[in-house]
Amino acid sequence: MTHTRSPRRAVRSATAGAVLAAAVALTSCSGAAPQPGTSPAGRTAWAEGGTLTIALNGTSTGSLDPTLANTLVSVSVIAALCDPLYDESVDGKLVPQLAERPQFSSDRTTATVKIRSGVTFTDGTAMDADAVKQTFERNKTLKGSQRAGDLEIIKDIQVVDPTTLKFVFDGPTSDGAFQDAFVSRAAYPLSPKAFTSMGAEFATHPVCVGGFVLDSQTTDTVTLKRDPAKTYYDQKSLHLDSIVFKVVADPSVRYANLQSGQFDVIQDLSPKDLSTAKSDSSIDVTQYPGRGYVNILLNPKTMAQPLVRKAFAESIDRKAISKAVWEGVYTPACTFIQPQSPMADPKNQACIPYDPAQAKKDLAAAGVTTPVKVVLEYSSTPERSQLATLVQAMAKQTGFEVSLKPTDTASVLADTRAGRNDAGINSYTGGADPISNLMLTPGAFLNSYPWNDDRVNALYDKILVTPDPAQAKPLYDQIQEILNTEVPVVYIAHNALIHGIKKAVKGLNLTASDGFSAMHAGFAK
């Protein structure tokens, strides 16, 4: 699963804090949500030491350079390695970590940010204002940076003193626009000494502010060990000797190893195992609505006619897919707007209906020769493979010949951007504000082929400066009406976040984006 943010300016509307209402309490450690029943870290009797083993859903560990990383696996690993300037709570609120809350100028074109003093990177060098500035500049300019889009709003960065920076923006900047730029991997301070001297090798030994360092990495395993130099400023909050992340694509294997005790935490518990896991007294199960979606991007060059793309959408039975692949736990999706969002209404939640007969009529009206050949690329996890096979069978009934191309997540993204397929199955973890989930405007990370519509771009820009939900909702309705006509993407399902955690594990923080923050986790006595 890809984890990213919209690179364009996003005004966090009044809806942002209300989008996610998870039934879990917030923790002060990182602003994320621990599993139900977890004792607050300050009152837990810790069994100091030990190794926490976490199974992540994916196909490879990927890059651990925060500037270059672009998968959900890397999100969870980096969160255990590095502290950010700011984090985001499960309900979408800004949570200060290595920096205090920003102080905006009266015209909101600048923000003054104070950072913690006396903090060092794991290489022993100081995390000061100049180091933070150099990190942001690297994120903006490094070739291949996945953070550059996040930081478009920043025009200049000024060091005021060793613990103070002034960020100059390209225009008046809302709290939400600041949050989109300064939360997560774009705001992990990195050691300039390390990334300038190591170059590309920095990904194999990332140096940031944290209690752990990278011990080893293979395609499917990352091991972190407690920093022997003890550079972390809050040593008392660290309890583990090491953290092992295992990348396991098959959810049944993840769950079987959680049951056997090989894994302490598993990400993305399969809905098929949900009832069994809930009846297991040794496991805590967390389940709450996600902010993201699973979709199929359609190539506007090879599937050039909107009627052909519409016919492909009409061939897909979302309800049947949700039941077969996710036991009905994932809800059928028609749009980028989460159903729990205050912006959701019947107009913008309306699907292109499952209608095989109409699909055949649309292909006939388009004047194309059937079967229409489509290369569908996807990450070769069991879930995605099942989804792709179902889409193939459904589309065959209406006049499409879908060839399946299983690969890994990074290849799906690369091939889609290069136009080496006709359709690609993707997913997005989502943001608190639905406009950040659109991902169909110029420069948006997941607008891979890309697709461009001046009408949508204009509505998007108008929403960015419309914080009033009552005024914004009709604009969302107009965007969805265009998407249902042009069909650059077929939304399949809105996700649910389900994780399995051994009851002995405490202090593990879960985020609304589906990642883990395990730096301060441990085992209770």
Automatic annotation (TrEMBL):
InterPro entries: Peptide/Ni-bd (IPR030678), SBP_5 (IPR039424), SBP_5_dom (IPR000914). Keywords: Signal. Residues 1-32 form the signal peptide. Residues 93-438 form the Solute-binding protein family domain. Transmembrane segments: none annotated. SUPFAM superfamilies: Periplasmic binding protein-like II. It comes from the Bacteria. Gene3D superfamilies: Dipeptide-binding Protein, Domain 1, Dipeptide-binding Protein, Domain 3, Periplasmic binding protein-like II. PANTHER family: D,D-DIPEPTIDE-BINDING PERIPLASMIC PROTEIN DDPA-RELATED (PTHR30290:SF38), PERIPLASMIC BINDING COMPONENT OF ABC TRANSPORTER (PTHR30290). This is ABC transporter substrate-binding protein. The lineage of its organism: Bacteria, Bacillati, Actinomycetota, Actinomycetes, Micrococcales.
